[in-house]
Every structure is written in structure tokens, then in C-alpha cells.
Known about the structure:
- By secondary structure, the chain is of the alpha/beta class.
- The mean pLDDT is 95.
- The chain has helices at residues 63-71, 95-104, 112-116, 118-127, 141-148, 160-173, 178-183, 192-210; strands spanning 7-14, 17-24, 31-35, 47-51, 136-138, 215-216, 231-232.
- Strands 3-2-1-4-5 form a five-stranded mixed beta sheet.
- The chain has a single domain (1-81, 113-233), classed as Nucleotidyltransferase, domain 5.
Amino acid sequence: MVxxxxxxxxxxxxRGGWIVVEAALNLNAATWKIAPNWNGxxxxxxxxxxxxxxxxxxxxxxxxxxxxxxxxSPCGSRVFKTxxxxxxxxxxxxxxxxxxxxxxxxxxxxxxxxxxxRPRILEIDDVLTAADQDRVFEAHPELAFARLNGGKPLAxxxxxxxxxxxxxxxxxxxxxxxxxWLGNLRGSGAKADDLLDACALVLTARHIARGxxxxxxxxxxxxxxxxxxxxxx
Length: 233
């Protein structure tokens, strides 16, 4: 494959399903769309970086998340603790029951934030195999933005300061169309921070494609399905 023709994608979950930003390695011909489900993302991009847990441990503890929190200190709480695999068998309406079950097993509680994205976790867990991880990589936008910011975590994306800096960093990185994209989000099923995160993940996918990606942890950790549990940035 000629690398200059390679396309990369950043994917983030959103209210409408998944927001997908695709681009060439030089960020030319960049596009964004909303895919209602994982299968709707398509297979145009050769490297995909997605902000969603891939590989679920039996006890909800993943070394990649432990190390990501440390790397983002003092903002480590932005990396949610993933639920234990057994919690995937509960109905979406049974958060209280699943939370009590997890505590009874000694795994700790399940946050409402991670429970709310459980349908997206299930989508990926149902379709991805270890072989797919040659193309689809778990990533985290906060790590991507920190790398773009010289290793320093940014102010919260829920603050005007944080949103403004994220936009400026992406514009400087080559997303010259970002302001226009943000202006066209209304009614799409995605918020501004969803789009900004997906763009940051494109940069992670580009690092992976170029061989400059970083990965947490350094070793290989696998779940019961054989899926590797790591976070690229």
C-alpha cells in the first residue's frame, strides 16, 4: 500500500451513534459523518482510532487505564474505569443491579458514566476480534490532546477555555475546516466536544500509521476473548 494514499479515521461515541472523522495522512480530503451503528462506520480507513474500551477484563481493572490515568495526572479521572465483563450480561435498565453485583464480587462499583456508554462497548465487543486490532485501535482523546499540547493535559473540554484550546490545537495541526464543521453540527446527533475528540483521534491514527504511535501498557494484556487491552496515543 502506498502510504500517501492511506486514510485514517478517528471515531467517538455520540448521541446519534458514532461520529467518524476520516482524512488522508496529510489531513487532505477530510470528512465527518454520523454512523448510527458500528457497521455503518465503513472500512475506507486503513487505521481507525476509537475512544471506546476494546477488551474487557473480568474484574474491570485494565492496566492501560491505570497507566493512562497516571499519564494524565492530575486529570486522571477523565479516564473512566471500565465495567467488568460479567456486567455486560445485565439489561441496560439494570444499572443498580449490576452495580450491586459488581460490588458483591469485590470489583468495586460501576459508574453511571461508563454504564451510559455500555451499548457502544457491547457493539464493539460483539464484532471485533483480535485480528481486527491490526486496524482498529483503542485510543483516548485526552492523551491525544496532551501529546499535541507538549505533554500537558488541557483544561476540561466542558469549559470555554478547554474547548478553545482544543480547537486552536486542531487548527494548527491541519484541521483548517474545524470552525466550519463546528458550525454545521446542529441536529447531527453529536456535540462539539464529540467532534473535537474524533479529530484528535485522527492524529492518533496517523501516528500509528507512521510508526510514531505510543501505547499503554508496554506489554500485552488480553481479556477472556483474546482481545488486546491497550490505549494508543
